[in-house]
Specification:
The chain is of the alpha+beta class. Helices cover about 35% and strands about 15% of the residues. It is built from 8 helices and 6 strands, in the order βαββαβαββααααα. Strands 5-4-1-3-2-6 form a 6-stranded mixed beta sheet. Helix 1 crosses helix 6 and helix 2 crosses helix 3. It is globular, with a radius of gyration of 17 Å. The chain starts with a strand and ends with a helix.
Length: about 210
Amino acid sequence: MANIETITLGMGCFWSPDALFGQLPGVLRTRVGYAGGTSASPTYRNLGDHTETVEIDFDPQKIKLDGIVDVFWQHHNPLNINEYKGRQYLSLALFRDESQRNIILDAMKRREEQGLGRPETEVAPFRTFDLAEERHQKYYLKRFPDAISKVSTLFPTEESLLNSTLAARLNGLAKGFTNLERVIVDIRTWPISLEEQQALTGLIRRIKW
C-alpha cells in the first residue's frame, strides 16, 4: 500500500477514541494501548506513568493529519479530562517526526487564534506503545455477539481482527459514530475487487445489532 502514517493520541478512556477514529474514511487501523511514559511493561492495572492512548494508522492521501487532530480536539476537553488527576487520562499527542509536530502545534495555534483557547495538551515525541489487553480492543464491537461472530468468519484471530479496517469501521458503528450506509459507501472506495466489496457489504448487512 502507498504511504501510511501513524499518530498516537490520548483523550481519556481509550474505548471511545478507538471507535471515533476507526470510523473515519482514510483510517486503516486503530489499536488501543499505553504510551507517553517511561515505566516498563505497563498494563491496565499497573500503568505507571503511561496514558491510555489510541494508535491510528491512516492514508494521508485520503485523510490528512490536520483533519485527525481537529477531530481529536473537537471530542474532548483537554483542560482536565473527566476531572481526573494523574496521567491515565491525559490530553496527549505523540508525534513521530517534525512534520507531525508542526501540524499539531499549528492546529493548537489556530484554535487559540479562533478564540477557543490554547489546548492544554501535552505534545511530545513518540517513544513506545504497549498494546492494551485483548478485552479493550474494539470494545464496542465486542458487545454485539452476532457482529463478532460474522466478522470472525473473515478475521478468525484477535490479531487479524485488530488489524482489520472493517472491524475499525464497525466498532465506530457499534458506538454510534457512523451508520451502516456510510460504512458501505466507504467500502466501495477500498482497493479490493467488486466481488470482495459485495461480500463485505452483504455480510455486514446481515449483522443483528
